[in-house]
Amino acid sequence: MSLLTVLVVLIVVGVILWLVNAYVPMDGKIKNILNIVVVIFLVLWLLKAFGLFNSLNNVRVDNMKKVNTYYSLSLLDSSQAGNSM
């Protein structure tokens, strides 16, 4: 990704965010939340674009299912152990 592409994306997102903040009537709290979400998204996108956040590719949602299943089974085993006494 070229530096020019990064600059164009930042400018376009900034202009869109400015237009939303200036011309869309919203509560101030909602505008703040919107601004924070956009800034977090842009920071993560920039880190990934420059290769500083490559570990994002290794995150899988299905791994948490295995961990939760193991945790649930271990809780089930411990509760059954107490009932057998």
Question: What attributes does this structure have?
Answer:
3 helices; mainly alpha; 85 residues
What does this entry look like structurally?
By secondary structure, the protein is mostly helical. The protein has one domain (3-83). Helices cover 76% and strands 0% of the residues. It has helices at residues 3-23, 28-49, 62-83. The longest helix has 22 residues, at 28-49. The radius of gyration is 22 Å and the shape is flat. The model has no long low-confidence stretch (mean pLDDT 79).
Percentage of helical residues?
over 70%
Order of helices and strands: HHH
How many strands?
A: 0
How many helices? The count is: 3
Average pLDDT metric: 79
Domains counted in the coordinates: how many?
1
The major β-sheet equals: none
Helix-strand category: mainly alpha
Task: Flag low-confidence runs.
Answer: none
Kindly report how far apart the N and C termini lie: 64 Å
Overall form? flat
Radius of gyration: 22 Å
Give the strand content: under 5%
Offer a concise description of the structure:
This protein is an all-alpha fold. The protein has three helices and no strands.
